[in-house]
Amino acid sequence: MKDIDKKLIETISRYTASGIEQQVDYEKFYLYSLITHSTAIEGSTVTEVENQLLFDEGIAAKGRSLVEQMMNVDLKNAYLFGFEWAKTSKSYTVNFLCELAAKVMRRTGSEYSTMGGNFDSSNGELRRCNVSAGIGGRSYMAFQKVPQATADFCQWLNDALVSVDRNNMATCYRLSFEAHFRLVTIHPWVDGNGRTTRLLMNIIQRQLGLIPSIVTKDAKGEYIQALIDSREQEDSTIIQDIMLAQHITNLESRILQYQQSINDTVNSESDTVNDTATRLITLIKAHPEYTYDEYAKALNIGRATVARHIKKLNGTIIKRIGSDKDGHWEFIKEQ
Q1: Helices marked H in the chain — which ranges?
Q2: Which residue has the higher pLDDT, 68 or 277?
Q3: 114 carries a ligand binding annotation
Q4: Are strands 318-321 and 328-331 parallel, antiparallel or unpaired?
Q5: Which of 47, 1, 33, 86 is nearest to 251 (CA)?
Q6: How much is the mean pLDDT over the chain?
Q7: Residue 262: pLDDT over 50
Q8: Does the annotation list 14 as a binding residue?
Q9: Residue 272 annotated as binding?
Q10: pTM, rounded to two decimals
Q11: In terms of DSSP bridges, do strands 117-120 and 111-114 run parallel, antiparallel, or are they unpaired?
Q12: Which class for 18: exposed (0-12), middle (13-18), buried (19 or more C-beta within 10 A)?
């Protein structure tokens, strides 16, 4: 076992023991991180807080393009679909992958008329034209070979999932990274390949009982270069090792952030919080049914500030009862 594989196992053990996953709405906020970073790699500038407001309350972010926001909404729906599918015992097929791509590209896809034929990326249809990796980049597989290559990929993945040792966490992660690399190298679609193949990677991880890995926007350059190096050197362990290292870094960062948020939010001796949070807590006590806008107006602060503080308080000080639109807040312990 490589040293990085051992470090991964140690980091996940600490992550699990930290209590992060026991926070209220942990899975929802983790999902929002997956979505925000995946779209950011493709050029979206929408933040996690903005996505939270968009997804939970239908409030669009000011200064963000409609395409960016549609991209994020589509990817959220694709993730919800994919993670539900992961609970089944169905085999991977070309039709399923195209259905996944259709959900990713639903509102931002286009119709194409090419020498190879007409196709619609919003329907997840396989490309019928050749594409390259940017200006001056290497060309991907000829479009005529894509259908069979994608079918062969599905056969390989189904066989690999049957034979993989599910007790070997590092091996399972490597399988998911390998699947991502193989499919993005085929490049089955004219657009949305990155988002769709990272989603596939996360679906596989869910199937194998793993914490989904996030390719962060800050690691974009290293990630893309590793994909290029793996293709050119015909050595997929390059991208596997990079993605393992990035996953370790992300989990360690989340452990530290979680510990700091507890220390910042609740004083270990007096359970006091900073001034803004204290005022917000007092208001939540008086009006647990208020919306973010009402809290912001009452405290004369920005809505984003309210959302940021509630995100820190949620799961440690307060918890949500009922839906985001019609529910209310309750305190986990007396303040």
Answers
A1: 3-17, 26-41, 48-57, 66-85, 94-104, 146-163, 169-186, 193-207, 220-233, 237-265, 275-286, 292-299, 303-313
A2: 68
A3: no
A4: antiparallel
A5: 33
A6: 92
A7: yes
A8: no
A9: no
A10: 0.80
A11: antiparallel
A12: middle
**Residue type (1 letter), 136:** G
Q: Which of 225, 226, 177, 167 is nearest to 197 (CA)?
A: 177
- Whether residue 195 is annotated as binding a ligand: the answer is yes
CA gap 315, 321 in Å, rounded:
12
Provide the token pair at 129.
Answer: 């034209």
194 is in an annotated binding site: yes
Structure tokens, 54: 């968009």
Q: What pLDDT does 137 receive?
A: 73
pLDDT for 136? 67
> Which pLDDT score, from 0 to 100, does residue 210 have?
98
Q: Quick one: tokens of 72? A: 């994020």
* C-alpha distances in Å from residue 22, one per residue of 109, 251, 319: 38, 15, 12
Torsion of CA 292, 295, 299, 300, to 10 degrees: 40
- The amino acid at 222: E
Q: Dig out the tokens for 150 from the structure.
A: 């994608």
Active site residues: 187
Please give the structure tokens belonging to residue 222: 């290293």
How many Cβ atoms from other residues are within 10 Å of residue 223's Cβ?
A: 20
The answer to whether the annotation marks 315 as part of a ligand binding site is: no
Question: Per-residue pLDDT tens for 174-219?
Answer: 999 999 999 999 999 999 999 999 999 999 999 999 999 999 999 9
Domains and CATH numbers, the chain: 25-129+138-257 (1.10.3290.10), 275-331 (1.10.10.10)
- Who wins on pLDDT, 236 or 269? 236
Count of CB atoms situated within 10 Å of the CB of 335? 15
Query: Computed from CA positions of residues 56, 62, 68, 70, in that sequence, does the dihedral angle turn out positive or negative?
Result: positive
Following CA atoms 302, 307, 313, 315 in sequence, which dihedral angle do they give, to the nearest 10 degrees?
Answer: 170
